[in-house]
Write a structure and sequence with these properties.
The complex is a heterodimer of chains A (155) and B (171). With 155 residues, chain A is of the alpha+beta class. Chain A is built from four helices and nine strands, in the order E-H-H-E-E-E-E-E-E-E-H-E-H. Helix content of chain A is 30%, strand content 21%. Chain B is built from eight helices and two strands. The chains are: A alpha+beta (155), B mainly alpha (171).
Chain lengths: 155, 171
């Protein structure tokens, strides 16, 4: 086998150890991005959320205590993103896996107000999306939630 | 340039975005390092609480990535409990992507003073050795800490590094 000269290794993009994926709907829209836009979540809150995702993808559950808690329903957990300076408390529904125990999939958006999750059917919705993903593993993508389309609406 | 730097370049042109992002990562970093140092010591949350004069739920709160209301005095107490020093520095935003890319357990571990290779006790080498055997013996006495240092992962700083990149607001 030919040995690497290391000449072309500089641009190699490493895949994170703990990847976080987003569920996509039938029209291949990222449901988390769509939810952020629909809820008009402040851009600073999106930044807080994205920073938590970036930290989790590198440090995993061990270095991110208190980020993913639950279960809130069978196979469903909630991710806790504290409201930045009094903003809305983001509680996206997630599942570990479902194809590998080092990955997490964001299944749908939710917020918490007065200790209650909104929308009230978010857990059931998350379970449906998980089932759809198990049936078709292309129904998710690993992409940033602060992408161009989100920014264009929220910034 | 890292992949993350490329991705953050455009977003960071927005002042509010970069401040919120940096503060969010700082909260994660502090919580993770307190947890890692406690586990490495090793101490339970209850034992650490006793050492700094608080209750176990207080430690659980400090180890939560969403917590941001720590006080410098509490961090000082934690540093004393872990037998390390506290370091608070301001940083440029440009150092953030690299810090995030190196966010792993090894990068967060700090050795307590009694295991610190720089200050770990070793007998002083004998002066005026009369023969090679004595010289070799004195060198052997110096070897263990150097070997330990070689094994130690590269570290940029010691103690709890609280990087208040954007403001002092959270400290």
């Amino acid at each position: 086998m030919e040995k690497s000269t290391r000449k072309y290794n500089a641009g190699v993009i490493l895949f994170p150890k703990w990847p976080i994926y987003c569920f996509v709907d039938h029209r291949e829209n990222n449901v988390i991005r769509e939810w952020l836009k629909a809820e008009k979540v402040p851009w600073t809150q999106v930044a807080t959320f994205q920073a938590k995702i970036d930290a989790y993808e590198r440090g995993g559950p061990e270095l991110n205590p208190g980020l993913i808690v639950g279960p809130v329903a069978k196979n469903i957990h909630k991710m806790k993103i504290k409201g930045h300076k009094g903003h809305v408390q983001l509680r996206p529904m997630v599942c570990f896996g479902p194809f590998s125990n080092t990955e997490v999939t964001l299944l749908c958006g939710a917020i918490e107000k007065d200790f209650k999750l909104k929308p009230t059917n978010c857990k059931e919705h998350a379970q449906e999306n998980r089932e759809a993903l198990l049936a078709d593993r292309t129904r998710r993508r690993r992409e940033r939630i602060d992408g161009e389309t989100t920014r264009a609406v929220l910034q | 340039m890292s992949e993350l730097t490329e991705k953050l370049r455009e977003q960071f042109s927005n002042e509010e975005y970069r401040n919120a992002y940096a503060e969010s990562f700082l909260n994660s970093y502090v919580a993770a390092q307190i947890k890692v140092l406690r586990e490495e010591y090793p101490l339970t949350q209850g034992e650490l609480a006793e050492k700094i004069g608080t209750k176990q739920p207080g430690i659980a709160r400090l180890e939560n990535v969403n917590y941001s209301a720590w006080k410098v005095e509490t961090l000082r107490k934690l540093a004393r409990a872990f037998n390390v020093r506290l370091r608070i520095v301001f940083e440029e935003f440009g150092t953030l992507p690299d810090e995030i890319d190196r966010f792993n357990r090894r990068a967060l571990v700090r050795q307590p003073f009694h295991r610190d290779p720089v200050f770990s006790p070793c007998e002083p080498a004998k002066q005026g050795t009369e023969n090679v055997q004595n010289e070799a013996a004195s060198q052997m006495q110096v070897e263990p800490p150097i070997a330990e240092m070689a094994k130690r992962p590269p570290q940029r700083d010691e103690g709890i590094a609280v990087s208040a990149d954007s403001s002092f607001g959270g400290i």
